[in-house]
TrEMBL record:
This is Sulfate transporter. Belongs to the SLC26A/SulP transporter (TC 2.A.53) family. It is a multi-pass membrane protein. It is found in: Apical cell membrane. It comes from Rhipidura dahli. SUPFAM superfamilies: SpoIIaa-like. Pfam families: STAS, Sulfate_transp. GO terms for cellular component: apical plasma membrane.
């Protein structure tokens, strides 16, 4: 046996106290380090290489700003809010991430999936408060009109219960819900950073995230169809929104607005063609074509001078105010209503941001701090929530554009924020006549990447069937039930798949590779030779309570021997033999002769004298696992078959020692435990 190194026992109490003393001490150096770590911009900005970086940062910042404005206005439809709030969100998120983020390349701001999750909560609360979810419905309160008195009373009652003044109308209440949700999500993210709970993101596998994104994209697509064809249907809420919305669309398809249909068709053709050409010739283009901006400008001019709203009743964006609304503290009572909804929002926002940060950090050979990213995205939600903004996250599409246009640092984010500020202060009213169907087209075309995941299903299935099943289940639940439920279903289902795979793992009998000391699966490889009088069994999973029975069944099936049944058969044989000898009879009660009875009860001829268990794939043992190995050791010993363990890792050996597998005499470990299968086989052959 190899000699183990002695391990000094760690006094956890002293370690914790030492860490607390170190954390609670305050020196000028520690304070400076804390500030520099909390605001990474203080580290890299003084070292900024202006001549080398400034051109790429300015170009990427301008391009992202130009893309950000139409996307922000469009994604306001998803969030169920006015476009001005999306512009606020894009402005503040870029500034705060510039100060606190550790990634040089990610673009943090408004994101379609996050906007959808916010919009679903906003719609639900508006419905519970008694508001009409129809976008073109007149405000129920605060407009001075006597219409809809019953609706106004209901709304006023609900608003008072929620802690909002009765003068607050639909728009005010909607942004109040959104800011409360955003604030709570940001608090969750900061708390996760303080308690270092970033490991939560590990439970969101790539299959779960891709399935969630694709399912949510189907929901987003469905929500925009009514704007594409210009029909007035209520915004569906609750589980099964996708199916209900499509039923309502087909019921009201006859009311489609021809102007909106034609506009949508033209915009989608132009946007898709430009995207495809951009993808095909991206190596020749210095920066992406600002197709969305061109489409929005042209569509706004056509709508304004063609009076499409007045003549064809085409739905338009409406007035977008300039400047900033005075800041306001999010309502505490509303926070209580959305506290549960904020948790999945916080996790999804953090996971997308960190995964993108790590991906681009690895690509460009620098490091990020995941915990600081948690703080950064948390404060990108907390601080803007006071300024009428909603939840943000990193977005893959805009990040890819940033890197392709020469981005070097987050200075590009400041440039993008300045472009948004220019729109906020001066240009926002110019978008009054912009048709909503144009915004819906921009949203739908932006989903191309997520919807293309359907084409990858055959390749994904070929690589791993279980991961494909996880993707399908997550996507289906996200689309057909709800995004939050879909995410939860995906996480739980992927964990169940892992449990099932450990419950019924691969098992095999091994044969020897000729003229070597190596052994492999006899069913998978040709020309393996069996070892006389020795069976070698491999179990490819941890041995614990959930797979104990499967371990035993597989062992008995592959060795063609159940020691319990064989022991019972032998006892019965011995008992019958004694009875016959005692009576001296040559016959039995059932009329069979002694010879015939003996043939029925004769013990089975066992073709091996040693069982070697290959433990190389057993990563750990629990109490049940140790007891199972002790059980087979005892059962096979009764049949004069020795059980030898091979290739055990140190944690398994420690578990066996603590469980008393080797008995009181540790010295006998040399005859029970081996560091290779071949050593165990040689020992078994030498046994008499």
């Amino acid at each position: 046996l190899m000699e183990r190194k002695p391990h000094t026992k760690i006094n956890r109490k002293e370690v914790i106290l030492a860490k607390l003393r170190k954390s609670c001490s305050c020196t000028p150096q520690k304070l400076k380090k804390f500030v520099m770590d909390f605001f990474p911009v203080l580290r890299w900005l003084p070292k900024y290489q202006c001549k080398e970086y400034i051109w790429g940062d300015v170009m990427s910042g301008l391009v992202i700003g130009i893309i950000l404005v139409p996307q922000a206005i469009a994604y306001s439809l998803l969030a169920g809010l006015k476009p001005i709030y999306s512009l606020y969100t894009s402005f503040f998120a870029n500034i705060i991430y510039f100060l606190m983020g550790t990634s040089r390349h990610v673009s943090v701001g408004i994101f379609s999936l996050i906007s959808l999750m916010v919009g679903q909560v906003v719609d639900r609360e508006l419905l519970l408060a008694g508001f009409d979810l129809n976008d073109d419905a007149p405000p129920a309160l605060g407009d001075g009109s006597p219409q809809n008195d019953s609706m106004s009373n209901t709304t006023a009652f609900n608003l008072t219960i929620a802690g909002i003044n009765a003068e607050c109308g639909k728009e005010c209440y909607a942004i109040g819900i959104a800011t409360a949700l955003t604030f709570v999500a940001g608090v969750y993210q900061v708390l996760m950073g303080i308690f270092r709970l970033g490991f939560v993101s590990m439970y969101l596998s790539e299959s779960v995230l891709d399935g969630f994104a694709t399912g949510a994209s189907l929901t987003i697509l469905t929500a925009q169809v009514k704007y594409l064809i210009g029909i007035k249907i209520p915004r569906s809420q609750g589980h099964g929104m996708l199916v209900i919305t499509w039923i309502n669309i087909f019921r009201n398809i006859s009311q489609a607005n021809l102007c909106d249909v034609i506009t949508s068709a033209i915009c989608i053709v132009v946007l898709v063609t430009a995207k495809e050409l951009g993808d095909r010739y991206k190596h020749k283009l210095k920066f992406p074509l600002p197709t969305e901006l061109v489409v929005i400008v042209v569509a706004t001019l056509v709508s304004h001078y063609g009076n499409l709203n007045e003549v064809y009743a085409s739905s338009v964006s409406g007035a977008i105010p300039t400047g900033f609304i005075p800041p306001k503290v999010p309502e505490f009572n509303l926070m209580l209503r959305v506290a549960v909804d904020a948790l999945p929002l916080a996790i999804v926002s953090f996971v997308f941001t960190v995964s993108l940060s790590e991906m681009f950090a690895k690509k460009y050979a620098y490091t990020i701090r995941a915990n600081q990213e948690m703080f950064a995205v948390g404060f990108c939600n907390i601080i803007p929530s006071f300024f009428h903004s909603f939840a943000t996250s990193a977005a893959l599409a805009k990040t890819l554009v940033k890197t392709s246009t020469g981005c070097q640092t987050q200075i590009s984010g400041v440039i993008s924020a300045m472009v948004v500020l220019l729109v906020l202060l001066f240009l926002a009213p110019l978008f009054y006549s912009l048709q909503k169907c144009v915004l819906a087209c921009i949203i739908i075309v932006s989903l191309r990447g997520a919807l293309r995941k359907f084409r990858d299903v055959p390749a994904r299935y070929h690589v791993n069937k279980v991961d494909t099943l996880v993707w399908v289940v997550t996507m289906s639940a996200s689309a057909l039930v709800s995004t939050e439920i879909g995410l939860l279903v995906g996480i739980v289902f992927s964990m169940l798949c892992i449990v099932v795979r450990t419950q019924r793992p691969r098992t095999a009998l091994l044969g020897q590779i000729q003229d070597t000391s190596f052994y492999e699966d006899d069913l998978e490889y040709k020309n393996l030779s069996t070892v006389p009088k020795v069976k070698i069994f491999r179990f490819e999973a941890p041995l614990y309570y959930a797979n104990r029975n499967y371990f035993l069944k597989s062992l008995y099936r592959l060795t063609n021997l159940d020691p319990n049944l064989e022991a019972a058969r032998r006892k019965k044989y011995e008992k019958k033999e004694k009875q016959h000898l005692k009576k001296g009879n040559h016959g039995t009660a059932n009329g069979l002769g002694i010879g015939e009875t003996t043939l029925q009860l004769v013990p089975k001829q066992i073709d091996f004298q040693a069982l070697v268990v290959d433990c190389s794939s057993i990563s750990f043992l629990d109490t049940t696992g140790v007891n199972t190995l002790k059980e087979i050791l005892k059962d096979y010993k009764n049949l004069n078959i020795s059980v030898l363990l091979a290739c055990c890792n140190p944690s398994v050996i420690d578990s066996l020692k603590r469980g008393g597998y080797f008995g009181r005499d540790i010295g006998c470990m040399q005859e029970m435990l081996f560091y290779s299968i071949h050593n165990a086989v040689l020992f078994a052959k030498d046994q008499k």
